[in-house]
Design a protein that fits this description.
Structural class: mainly alpha
Radius of gyration: 27 Å
Helix content: 55-70%
Number of strands: 2
Order of helices and strands: EHHEHHH
Number of helices: 5
Distance between the termini: 45 Å
Strand order of the largest sheet: 1-2
Shape: elongated
């Protein structure tokens, strides 16, 4: 078994620990339950979707396959050792490389979208829950006269709060777009 993992940054260890390669954290890509004779390699600065096209990853896999071929042909009964990944500075540049600024911009945009979807769900749920007591109070003749203005005020407050929260999500999208534009070659 071969396990390959990546990381969004070449230098930022905190960012790498938090988001890994943008989909999988390194800990998950190197499971404790893996067979004893498995091998793993970690490539900082290579995001998840680009692992499949990385020359460094292909080099590592080729080395493993060549070693396994030699081992099988000459020492069939010798157990496989744990190998360290290729540790060399990330110098190759290709169309898949992303700057830290682009990664932050993309992460902000993704977080803003998640925020907006979560807010939409919470808002819908909140209005549904708030409607329950008001619909019951409207059935009581004396109380309905008082509950109508309270309900209208409550909805105005909710509308204002959720409008402000939605503006925050839009601000994150604008920030992400601005970061991405600033990083484009002129």
């Amino acid at each position: 078994h071969y396990f390959i993992s990546g990381a969004v940054s070449k230098k930022n260890n905190l960012l790498n620990k938090l988001v890994g390669d943008s989909l999988v954290r390194q800990k998950s890509a190197n499971p404790r339950s893996a067979p004893l004779n498995c091998r793993n390699a970690h490539f900082e600065g290579v995001v998840h979707m680009h692992l499949a096209n990385s020359k460094r990853v292909y080099q590592q896999i080729k080395i493993w396959l060549e070693e396994d071929s030699l081992r099988v042909s000459s020492l069939a009964d010798t157990p496989i050792k744990k190998y360290s990944p290729i540790k060399k500075p990330y110098t190759e540049k290709n169309e898949h490389d992303m700057s830290t600024q682009d990664l932050i911009a993309g992460s902000l945009d993704l977080l803003a979208t998640a925020y907006e979807k979560t807010l939409e769900t919470v808002e819908t749920l909140h209005y549904s829950i708030a409607d329950e007591p008001f619909s019951i109070l409207q059935k009581v003749p004396v109380v309905s006269l008082l509950s109508d203005p309270v309900e209208a005020t409550h909805k105005q407050i909710l509308d204002s709060v959720y409008k402000a929260l939605r503006t925050g999500g839009k601000w994150f999208h604008v920030t992400a777009k601005t970061l991405a534009k600033e990083n484009k070659p002129k």
